[in-house]
Amino acid sequence: MRSPSGLHLHYLSLAKAPARWSNVLGGAVFGSSSTPAAVEDAPLAWVRTPLLMQAASCELWSVADPVHAGRRSRLRYRATHEVLFGCLTLPEGELSAVAEAQGCSALQQATVEAYDEMLATVDSAGYPYVVRVWNYLADINRPTHGIERYRQFNTGRQIAFARQGRAVAGGVPAACALGTPPGSPLVLYFLASKSPPTFVENPRQMSAYHYPAEYGAQSPVFSRAAVLHAAAGPTLFISGTASILGHRTVHAGDVAAQTRETLTNIEAVVREANRRVLRPAHDPFTLAELAYKVYVRHPADLPRVRHELSCVLEPDTHVLYLHADICRADLLVEIEATGQPALAGVTPS
Ligand code: 3EB
Questions:
Q1: DSSP letters spanning 272-314
Q2: C-alpha 281 – ligand 1 centre gap (Å)
Q3: Which of 215, 239, 244, 261 maximizes ligand 1 atoms within 8 Å of its Cβ, making it the mutation to test the pocket?
Q4: How far apart are CA 29 and CA 326, in angstroms?
Q5: pLDDT attached to residue 347
Q6: CB 171 within 8 A of CB 129
Q7: Quick one: DSSP state of residue 201?
Q8: Residue 278 confidence (pLDDT)
Q9: 198-200 and 186-193 as β-strands: parallel, antiparallel, unpaired?
């Protein structure tokens, strides 16, 4: 991805990974088949969502600035003087005894512990602003204890934020939450910063932290997007975005229409981000400058999803396609996007 900023995102195959890991802040390896080898002390999450095209298997965040590494409990991180990337993996099986004693599900307990560790780490390391969180949990739509697992996750996330004295509505991180194959551990990775980001909502959608109780007793704690302000320039993080208008799923059963609605939502978030933070100080964010991660529920839908993206995005756009369940059973596709403003002189199409 072309970028003027100090923070760079790459989607690539692990074989093409850099020889020098000293510039890598952190990342994630996707796929069901292999455990990535530990790469020096770089925090690399292993996410067991299968790839839909073999072009890329790895998401890497690199920086020009010097990095230092650290650990805290089960969490590993690397940081520059501005941003911290961390990841942690919690197998639910190890928590079933504690969970039973607490009277909650193992997933809820794992979520509380993961978020406790993340928030305690960023506070003590001096990067208190969590900008973006990627959440991956097994069997996201399956009910246990009479409650869908995504809702158990939402309860745990909200408990952890509230317990650390943090807001659970407004000023919360951009995020995504996707399903992984049964038996996979809870995996979280995140970016946090020393300086406050700007959080952005989507005028076409109700804020997720205000969703009505029909989507779960505890609302999901995430913003539609966040803009990280670094010395080298801003970076826009658009959360997982789906075919939701207001708070309702639209186009149930129609993957092409869901993809178009999702892209319209992403356009609306980009416009809102530009309205909120950039004009007139910076060049605007544009769809063309973003890199995309596309989660498809049914692999057979991939050609239809790719066709809709090709109608809106340039052929050389960086897109990583993954096979994953989405957090509502009627959603067939979810798309996240990340990037920097268009370089001066580049005309968006
Ligand atoms: C939605 O808009 C779709 O629970 O962290 C998107 C992004 C979604 C993040 C989360 C959920 C999350 O409600 C689902």
A1: HHIIIIITTTSPPP-GGGEEEEEEESSGGGHHHHHHHHHHHS-
A2: 30
A3: 239
A4: 19
A5: 44
A6: no
A7: -
A8: 64
A9: unpaired
Of the residues 158, 189, 222, which should be mutated to test ligand 1's pocket, given the most ligand atoms within 8 Å of the CB? 222
Q: Which residues of the chain have pLDDT under 50?
A: 1-4, 345-349
Residue 226 Cβ inside 6 Å of ligand 1? The answer reads: no
Best CA proximity match to 77, nearest among 122, 16, 139: 122
For 141, the 3-state DSSP assignment is: coil
User: For ligand 1, what atom is nearest to the CA of residue 208?
Assistant: 13
Q: Please, what is the angle between helix 255-273 and helix 302-312, to 10°?
A: 40
Q: Which of ligand 1's atoms lies nearest the C-alpha of 150?
A: 4
Instruction: Tell which residue, 223, 165, 166, has the closest CA to residue 197.
Output: 223
Q: Are 345 and 283 in contact (CB under 8 A)?
A: no
For residue 240, which atom of ligand 1 is closest to its CA? 7
Helices 149-163 and 106-125, packing angle to 10 deg:
30
Q: Which atom of ligand 1 is nearest to the CA of 326?
A: 14
Q: Read off the DSSP letter of residue 172.
A: P
Listing DSSP states for 23-48 in one string gives GEEEEEEE-SS-PPPP-TT--EEEE-
pLDDT score, position 105: 96
Tell me, in angstroms, the distance from the centre of ligand 1 to residue 223's CA.
9
Cα(177) to ligand 1 centroid in Å equals 6
Ligand 1 lined by 114 (C-beta under 6 Å): no
pTM over 0.90, yes/no: yes
Per-residue pLDDT, 35 = 58
Q: Which of 216, 208, 209, 112 shows the shortest CA–CA distance to 164?
A: 112
Cβ–ligand 1 distance for 175 under 6 Å, the answer yes
pLDDT for 277 equals: 87
- HEC assignment per residue over 306-348: HHHHHHHCCCCCCEEEEECCCCCCCCCEEEEEEECCCCCCCCC
